[in-house]
Design brief:
26% strand, alpha+beta, two-stranded antiparallel ribbon, 5 helices
């Protein structure tokens, strides 16, 4: 199994491993201006969906029917408060129904995994997802980086990630 990094950041914009373009790195950046253009919620949701599509395609390619929460940093009450007071409440509110599922060693089926992924990407929780049988581990990093450890070959993984409009190991 090998670790890989998935990112929205174009590899051509790195210099010595550092991204050189001023871009949004979090949902909290919605409403801020980058290069004279306001970063809109719709723009955020589009990229979030690309990450979700990549993860779901990886799950499919590895044969995973579920992921387990191996590690979890989340205070359900705090997350609920944060979502209810979010400036993006309408897009965050559907995530409230997944809060009872937030516990270590809990199996999350494919039909529910999107909410756990969104909670991670929106920085409400930090969870490490694993499926040992299918040799897959997913970790969410700062600045919208996603780390994946998988036995999938590089060409397959690169095809999946590129097909979602993202980049594999961009640094």
């Amino acid at each position: 199994m090998n670790w890989h990094e998935i990112a929205k950041y174009n590899p051509s914009n790195y210099a010595d491993g550092i991204y050189t373009v001023d871009e949004w790195t979090s949902m909290s950046d919605v409403g801020k201006c980058y290069h004279g253009i306001m970063f809109a919620l719709e723009d955020y949701l589009k990229v979030e969906q690309q990450y979700l599509d990549a993860v779901l395609s990886i799950l499919c390619a590895t044969g995973c029917k579920y992921m387990s929460i191996q590690y979890l940093e989340a205070d359900r009450n705090l997350v609920e408060e944060q979502i209810k007071s979010s400036k993006n409440y309408n897009s965050d509110a559907p995530l409230l129904k997944s809060l009872p599922k937030l516990q270590e060693n809990k199996r999350i089926g494919l039909q529910e995994i999107d909410q756990i992924i969104r909670l991670n990407l929106r920085e409400y929780i930090y969870a490490v997802l694993v499926n040992k049988k299918h040799q897959l581990k997913i970790e969410f990093g700062y600045d919208y980086y996603l780390r994946v450890c998988t036995a999938l070959d590089d060409a397959t993984l690169r095809s999946i990630v590129g097909g979602a409009g993202l980049f594999l190991d961009p640094r």
